[in-house]
Each structure stands twice: as C-alpha cells, then as structure tokens.
Specification:
By secondary structure, this protein is of the alpha/beta class. It folds into 3 domains: 12-76; 90-144, no CATH class; 163-347, 2-Layer Sandwich (Nucleotidyltransferase, domain 5), CATH 3.30.420.10. Helix content is 40%, strand content 13%. The chain has helices spanning 12-23, 29-42, 47-54, 58-71, 90-100, 117-127, 135-144, 163-175, 245-258, 282-289, 309-321, 329-347; strands at residues 181-197, 216-229, 235-240, 264-269, 294-298. It has a 5-stranded mixed beta sheet with strand order 3-2-1-4-5, sandwiched between helices. The longest helix is centred in the last third of the chain and has 19 residues, at 329-347. The chain is elongated, with a radius of gyration of 33 Å. The N and C termini lie far apart (84 Å).
Length: 368
C-alpha cells in the first residue's frame, strides 16, 4: 500500500518561486509542469483532479508530490545523471582556450586577423597531441568559458604617463570650482558636412519608424570652435571654413570680452597644436594682454571624454545635424549658430558631472 503524504504546505517564499517559474517565459516546460502540480495540490485539489487538469498520469503527480515533500523546491529539479565519460581532458580544453587567445598567424594562418570556428578547430587538431575534435565541440568549449575570439571592440588607450594626475586636476575643477573663478571647456567640432539628402526624410507613424535617406550631395564643410561654461551651460562659439590658431584666438578674445572682470578663467582643452604656444608664443602673449587671468589645463591624450564640451557636441549632432538636409555651407552655419542661440537663451544648462576622478595611491619606499 502506498505511503500517505501529508497535505502540501507552502511558505510565502516557496509559493512566490513556484508562481514565478510558471509565469516566466524562459522556464522549461518540465519545470512549469512540476510547479503547477505542487500549486494545484496546495490549493486543495486531490491527486486525480491534478492529473486530469494537467493531462498527466497520476503516478507523475505522486512522484513530484513525494519529491517536494522530501526536499522542498530542490526536489523538483532533475537528479544528477552519470552521463557518458568525458571525451576530452581538461588539459586539452585548456590548450584549445590558449590557442583561441593567441594570434592565428602564430599557427600558420597569416591571412586571418581573428579566429573562425573552422580554422580554430584545424589549429587545435594539428597542435594538440592525440586530439580529434569537431568544430561544434570547440564552440562548446569556448561557450563554457565565455570566450568569443571572433569578437572585438574598439579601444583607445592613453599612454600619457601623467594620465591620472591630469584627469584628477580637471575633475577637481569640475567638482570644486572656486566661487570667484570660471571654468570653460574649449574644443573644435571639425568637418561638419553640409549634406543635402537626395530624398526627403520620412516621418514616423504609429508602429513605423521614421527613415532618412543614406544618399546625399556634399556642399562642403564647416568647423565649429566653441567654449562651454560648466557653471551656466552658456556656449561661446565661432563657425567658419577653417579652424586655425587665428580662428581660435578670435574665439578666445570673445571669451575675454564676456568675462571682463578679474576672475581667473580655467581653460580645459586637448593637446592640439593650436592649443600650444608655438614659435610665436601666442597664448603666453594672449594671457599677458589679459592680465594673466587665464590658466590652461590640458587633457591627457586620447581622453576627450573628460572635456565637458564633448557632451554639448553630441547634443548638437543628434538634435541639429543628424537628420537635417543642407543645400549650402551657409545654411549649415546658420542652423548651427541658431541652435546655439536657442541653447543659450532657453535650453542651456550645466551638466551633472558624476565622475570624481581616480584614487591616488601613495607608494611608501622602504629605507634600507
């Protein structure tokens, strides 16, 4: 005679887990079935009613009822199976991973700059002793180790030996700007193309994305040189055909006109040659003419992200340039300067800068 099992009892946590399993789209059908058996029994249905509702044999109901009674929710999982013996050793799989992390050229594939499943399998079978593995098994080995040797992402590394110190200097100005000082971020947005779309942009409709034509006619380029005040969000800008040192000097004279008092002005910009003194000592002389109230801070190489004006340039591109069609350079310039006036008059704001810099670590030298 079958052993009688007490009525199913669920605590809140168990019930929530079972309901979540039943509702989750990624749950396997067998998991859903087992969870439903326990929930229906907990609601007061007897074994026959549960079997009829789920269209299963009463023995199945009893099996998972007993398993749940003995081990709880863990009892609803499949018991471990012995399975077939491992075909490939751990060492062989490690060697496959080592090959996948190396260059194909080192294994005779000079024409390939990254691995494909086929050539990686060939290289593994040729290189690893006593190995005969299929491409699908190689792929499984890679998947088990979350290794994707065919995928790369772009990376820009700064080799500036003072990278941390320069970034922290600029970030400190952002986070702790003295009340009586000004911080402006200066940069150039070059190569803004006056492109005329061959076909008009199609506006979006419910359920249908808008579309813009990929073919265009070029009408030349414009360069924008701009300064961004990190406190007010105000933009001072010059737009024209070139971005020479003379053009930058014109912009900086406009900056000096805006900030006529004796406040110190911190200028954040990159290492472009026009930002350096050069043979004419242009910035030393410029600063001298303006009572040495300018202090220049250079971002590390390949660290444009630390310059806040890049955020404004991104906004300008998305909202003003991306979907627009320009029939001339003059039209492009007019639109850009109009957007900047709108930004200054109505929409401009300071950016919420949250990066606080890198932790500075001191190294104590041992005295022998």
């Amino acid at each position: 005679m079958r052993k009688l099992i007490d009525k199913i009892r669920l605590n809140r946590e168990q019930r929530e887990k079972l309901i979540k399993t039943v509702k989750a789209q990624k749950s396997e059908q067998r998991e859903v079935l087992r969870a439903n058996i326990i929930l229906l029994l907990w609601e007061g249905n007897d074994e026959n009613e549960v079997a009829n509702q789920l269209g299963i044999n009463i023995k199945t109901v009893r099996k998972w009822r007993d398993r749940f009674h003995d081990k709880g929710i863990e009892g609803l999982k499949d018991s471990p199976r012995s399975g077939a013996p491992t075909t490939f050793t751990v060492l062989q799989r490690c060697e496959i991973i080592a090959i996948a992390c190396d260059c194909p050229a080192n294994y005779g594939y000079d024409t390939h700059n990254h691995w494909t499943g086929k050539i990686l399998t060939e290289a593994a079978n040729k290189t690893i002793e006593d190995l005969s593995i299929s491409e699908s098994s190689v792929r499984r080995t890679l998947q088990m180790n979350d290794l994707k040797p065919h995928k790369f992402r772009m990376w820009l590394h700064s080799k500036d030996p003072e990278f941390t110190e320069k970034v922290n200097d600029i970030v400190d100005l952002y986070m702790n700007t003295p009340e009586d000082e000004v911080v402006i971020c200066v940069d150039e947005k070059t190569g803004m193309q006056a492109t005329e779309k061959v076909t008009e942009t199609v506006l979006p409709k419910p359920g249908i994305l808008g579309k813009y034509e990929c073919e265009y006619i070029r009408h030349g380029t414009q360069s924008l040189i701009a300064a961004f005040d990190i406190k007010t969000g105000n933009i001072i800008a010059e737009c024209g055909d070139t971005r020479t040192a003379e053009d930058l000097l014109v912009l900086m004279e406009k900056v000096a006109e805006v900030y006529t008092d004796d406040k110190k002005i911190h200028v954040i910009w990159d290492n472009l040659n026009t930002h350096k003194d050069g043979p004419t000592k242009r910035w030393t002389l410029f600063n001298k003419e303006h009572k040495n109230k300018f202090e220049f801070h250079f971002t590390p190489k390949h660290a444009s992200w630390v310059n806040q004006i890049e955020i404004f340039f991104s906004i300008l591109h998305r909202r003003c340039l991306k979907l627009s069609s320009f029939k001339s350079k003059a039209g492009l310039k007019q639109m850009v300067m109009k957007f900047i006036r709108l930004w200054n008059d109505e929409e401009g704001h300071a950016f919420n800068w949250t990066f606080k810099g890198y932790p500075m670590q001191s190294v104590e030298k041992e005295i022998a």
